[in-house]
């Protein structure tokens, strides 16, 4: 038999979750509690254990989709023994527990009933509390009829004032009628009540729906979605719409916040880095660095850390709330990394205290972790200055936007062989452009320029380090 | 290195996260009887309280820890499968709970927090009763007086007051049983726990405060809450305290026995800090990776209470294939019982709410019940409504 597993409320009152990944495929045999999916809620990424032992018959949702609680996400073909079963069978319309897991029975609106029923209680209770004898029930009618509603419609529009005469007040009706209206998709505001004091009866709702010409509200309900679907389908081939969420959303917010609060200045410096590239080759060949991954980024990072000692203003933060400038006496070096989930800027804590070897290991670990999409929140917060290596994409220069809360960001261009002045002649040299953006509130042109100049001097002649530390 | 160092020179504390090398951390030596490698360390004072612990009992302590870990894992899975609304995992705290609970006498009375499911299991609470409240089927899972365990307290630390009050009652009765309050590190910062300790000390009530310092009050690390060891907080109230390795089932058991004995002989309250670690989330609705370092978890995984006990049994030649099979079979059986009990738990009916208000008939309540049942009836019979739905 086929058993459906519907998305439970995974964290105390959530209404939806995103399927991050399936760990099983259709046709796979799974055991009880085997992890079948990763799901991201508003609170956490959690693993879903299989509620059944059996074979995966269907996956109803694609990774990346946000699914409402209670929607089927996977079906299993299981042996019909009834013992290992988990979820109670969802026979159509059958009352289900609404305390755990699947939440309340799904409404037409797709929202749990518990939420939409918030104003069902007081007035209703008083009506029902009166000892009203239940009227004889006609076969075709649901049992829910009460005397009040099944009154003959003889009192027709004697004085049918619209129920919602008082603005903001809910039309007068009884809970069963409200339920009927909800089931039929009728907005009670549009219904004229014929009962006592304008009470909307079951028949009023029925007449409203069956009365030939659909009122505007119902037309809207029925017509609008279809039309919308048509539009989406027609345009589907020419543009794709992706919801803004996750890392993209976060990145966007951070970039907007940064670009429109910190006045950015960007300076460029192009230098002959041939000596640095030679040093890199020598270090790679040396026994001491065996096993370490050295790249131009490693040496530039080290140079940035050294240059910061003489130019600490670039390693600072503008604290608008407290009207203070926060000068960091440590460097958490952020490295912009393209990951499967988008741009992230994890940082290396206390990078200024690291030797070149330690820095190299830290960089390798940071990029590996980021590429695997496993960077933890700890690594993503607390950066003090950042580097972005656009050179790996073959780009020469850019105007990077500051990581929010930081005073400077350096973009590394590609190392290119170019004709360059060398010892008063034109020679083919390895040349790189550095682009430095800084927060002009914190860093003056002079400070930024001197920092960039020092950095360039070190890369053009690594021996200059001796003069700087 | 042990994050909270054991043995001599216990002040230095390594590792990231929760332990800071601070002069204000005055705590005494952390008592440890089993090392993470499974070696038995001798300790003259504590050992004298464990003379009667036989090899079988060691195996049975091991079994209990494995079983409650399995209960915990199964309940976590049941929450993910929509069968429980919430579950507070105890992963990592098995030794603290089993070691202390197994030291108690049947007539002692336990006042647990929501995380002490291992204690409740040990006291004989049925497994489906453990999850009844977490499924939302009842306000409480069991009758406290059948197992001498109060229902689990959700309010942080409130049960410490109940325990102290109960202990003062024991004093009035002239009995020699003991009230035991279980709470966490976060609770020691709550007013209730401090008030309870004031009263316990003033009246020299027979109460034992067992604080499982699992290092995290949801996302708040213990180091932010206290600049001294939690055990040292007790001395401010004039309550003797012990600081034991909470991942060491024997150390916890010995400490609990010492405290119980003091209470029974009129010596008043004791505070035990069992230094352990919550390896899982605060509850199934929490994501600890958002606030704590993965390295910290790794450090503590190396000090796992169950693998430590396993190593000890191995050293003693007790870890036979038969034992492992029997323990695994027991855990499987309990997990199965828990799953079946949870899934087949009858759904509470709307009118059940009236059954739990007064123990004797009450006309005012009867009237309310009458009104409410007629209100419910106004919705009609759900079964017929369903058939109508089907016909549509």
Q: What is the structure about, briefly put?
A:
Chain A has 469 residues and is of the alpha+beta class.
Question: Could you explain how this protein is built, in words?
Answer:
The complex is a heterodimer of chains A (469) and B (392). With 469 residues, chain A is α+β, with helices and mostly antiparallel strands. Chain A has 3 domains: 1-94, OB fold (Dihydrolipoamide Acetyltransferase, E2P), CATH 2.40.50.100; 160-227, Irregular (Dihydrolipoamide Transferase); 248-468, 2-Layer Sandwich (Chloramphenicol Acetyltransferase), CATH 3.30.559. Chain A has 12 helices and 19 strands. In chain A, the strands form 5 sheets. In chain A, strands 9, 12, 15, 16, 17, 18 and 19 form a 7-stranded mixed β-sheet that branches. A 4-stranded antiparallel β-sheet of chain A has the order 1-8-6-3, with no helix packed on it. Chain A is elongated, with a radius of gyration of 34 Å. Chain B is α/β, with parallel strands linked by helices and 392 residues long. Helices cover 46% and strands 8% of the residues of chain B. Chain B contains 16 helices and 7 strands. Chain B has helices spanning 44-47, 55-80, 94-101, 117-122, 127-135, 144-147, 158-173, 191-203, 222-225, 230-235, 249-264, 294-301, 305-315, 321-343, 363-377, 382-391; strands at 109-111, 179-184, 207-213, 216-217, 220-221, 241-245, 270-275. Chain B has a 5-stranded parallel β-sheet, with helices on both faces. Chain B has a two-stranded antiparallel sheet with strand order 4-5. In chain B, strand 2, helix 8 (191-203) and strand 3 form a beta-alpha-beta unit. In chain B, helix 2 runs parallel beside helix 14 (321-343). The termini of chain B are far apart. Chains A and B meet through strand 5, helix 2 and helix 4 of A and helix 2, helix 14, helix 15 and helix 16 of B.
